[in-house]
Each structure stands twice: as structure tokens, then as C-alpha cells.
Amino acid sequence: MKNLLVVIDMQLDFISGALGTRQAEAIVPAVAKRIRAFQGDVVYTRDTHGENYLETQEGKHLPVVHCVKGTPGWEIHPEIQKAGEGKTVAVIDKPTFGSVELGDFAASGGYDAIELVGLCTDICVISNALCLKSRLWETPITVWADCCAGVTPESHANALSAMKMCQINVG
Question: Burial level of 157, CB count in 10 A (0-12/13-18/19+)?
Fold first, then answer.
């Protein structure tokens, strides 16, 4: 069986930086453990913005500059990077919540199952899970709830419920 683990936006700005939360900080050890134990390929996504972030549609709705390419906050947390050494097959920079490139990558890889972990459950995790489900509707997709955190605990729970309704497994 060929498996893929997608690590969504485990970047410093979402953990301890501009948009960091206690919940995001708390999942770092669990995400690193899941990556180390995973039998298969690992792909990381990075939320990636330019200097003009505040002029974009997203920036107008969320006026907090974050994950600007090349800045320290854009980088994947060191513990998460280290956990994927020898397993990482790709890093995908994405300019928005969901990644078409991630769907293309997963479709071309012939994966039998896809798992997701990361941040934020209620924005980028759900967006990418649904993009993958739309592209690979017969591939089992699992989101690990204990390895995700949302903007709030309530929005995290709501996103998990929505994904279950869309036939995405929540573990």
C-alpha cells in the first residue's frame, strides 16, 4: 500500500508567531510523532504570501501579515521539519487556503490512502481535505483530530463535523 501524509501549514507564524495559538503550540509534539511513525511519503504545504498581502482579498478579510515568503514565520517549525527527514517527497507553497497543486501531486502519486494533519483545521485543513476528496473521491482520506488545531476549539470541532459529513474520516 502506498500512503501519503499531508502536513498542512505547520509554520512558525501559525504556531508561535502572528497567528499563533496555544492549541497550535500544543499539537507540535503529536504531529512530529505522527510524521516519525508514518509509513509512506510526507508532503508539507506552506501558506505563502508576498509583501502585498494586505492588498489581497485574503489580506482585506484577515489583516494580519503572516507567512511572507522568506521570513522566519514562513518557515516550517524545526521539530516538524526534522520529523520528516528521509520521508519528505515535496514541499508545496500555496497562495490560498486549498492547493490545486497538492491535488495534482496526490493524483499523480498513485496513493492508496491520504492522511492530513496541521493548521488550521477550520481553514486550510478542511479546504485541502475537500480539494483532495473532490479530486480523488475513491481514495480514503483521514484527518487526525489530535494533530490539528483550529482558530478556536469550537471552529476546530465544527470543521471536523463538516469533514465527516463529506465522507472524510476523522481519527
Answer: middle
Q: Within a 10 A sphere around the Cβ of 112, how many other Cβ atoms?
A: 12
Q: Are 65 and 18 in contact (CB under 8 A)?
A: yes
Helices (H), the chain: 12-15, 22-37, 57-61, 78-83, 100-109, 126-135, 153-165
The torsion defined by the Cα of 61, 149, 135 and 4, in degrees rounded to 10, comes to: 140
Strands 3-8 and 169-170: unpaired
Task: Categorize the per-residue pLDDT at 137 as very low, low, confident or very high, splitting at 50, 70 and 90.
Answer: very high
Q: What's this model's pTM, rounded to 2 decimal places?
A: 0.97
Measured CA to CA, the distance from residue 42 to residue 125 in angstroms comes to: 15
Distance of alpha carbon 40 from its chain centroid, rounded? 17
- The overall average pLDDT reported for the chain is 97
Question: CA 53, CA 63: separation in Å to the nearest integer?
Answer: 8
Calpha distance 4→13 (Å, rounded): 25
d(CA 21, CA 107): 33
